[in-house]
Amino acid sequence: MSPRLHVGTYARNGGAGLHPLLHSAAHGWSVGDPCAEVQNASFGTYSARHGLHYFVDEQAEGTLGAFRENPDGWQQLARVSTLGAEPCYVSLNADESCLAVANYGSGSIALFQLDDRTGLPLDPPTIRQHAGSGPVQDRQDGPHAHCACFSRDQRWLYHADLGADQIIAYPTDRAAGSIGEHRIAYRAPAGSGPRHLAFHPILPFALLVSELASTLTVLQIANGTLAAWQKASTLPHNFAGESLAGHLSLNSAGDRVYVTNRGHDSIAVFAWDEGGSLELLQHMPSGGASPRSFVLLEAERQLLVANEEEDNIVAFPVQADGTLSPHDDEIALPGAVFLIVGQR
Prior knowledge:
The protein is mainly β. The chain has strands at 5-9, 19-24, 28-31, 44-47, 52-57, 63-70, 73-81, 87-92, 98-103, 108-113, 126-129, 145-150, 156-161, 166-173, 178-179, 183-187, 194-199, 205-210, 215-222, 225-233, 244-250, 256-262, 266-272, 278-285, 291-297, 302-307, 312-317, 329-332, 336-341.
């Protein structure tokens, strides 16, 4: 049985809220009725410890909502301000005792402690405001936090800043639930626009996707610093149009990497070997304009992508070698922007 998925939608593009995405052997994927309370959910995460989903509302003056999915529908348990504009990323630490949010518009991150009993975010959060800019005037006029995530060993909270072309690291105190003074962990090439950071499940490497440069950079991790190891384009070598790199994810073994290209409208698939080297395997057309987010279902051997400007969700079979076959299912959904696996 396939897992239950949820799709966040943008109201500005006709989205009606958070939709369930259901699968049947006879009919494939289908969209259910939306929960209108979960608006503009462009990113979210799920806490198995607390049985809660946390979704950012990117448009409503920067808010974070905590929701429980019950048999009779969704229950909103809390809604708090992220004390910043356009929150676009949210992540939990390993023991799910705190949660980090990246506020894209204001260039800040918010760290919320979670109530041990309820899992609800405790107000107010710790705020770290950043500074800086880059040479791409319409996108790098100031700091733009696009990712806030914890290192695998939980010693660091990293923040990828698209506007300032850098990754910032904060030392974390797990006992106190606090973060220390920042350091610059990595200075990205000027104008590259760091977007998302992901960590290898075993090896001391991380991957950075840079939106404006459409590149993947392998970073070697050492005590909170990140050193460039290899860089690869997410685009075909002969592509000359405009494109922006998007979502990044790895399989559970860490040997396959998936990243979207918005403009080229494709999903790039890479092999990632134990030495840290990337090898491009494939560019698969995404089945629509501007592939924004995707979810990889390894047990079901499927990858589903939300094409933001096409108002659809497309499902691809995943082959044994991790490459994608042409899509075999397509679902129309206005405003589709984000996909998340729900509670099983």
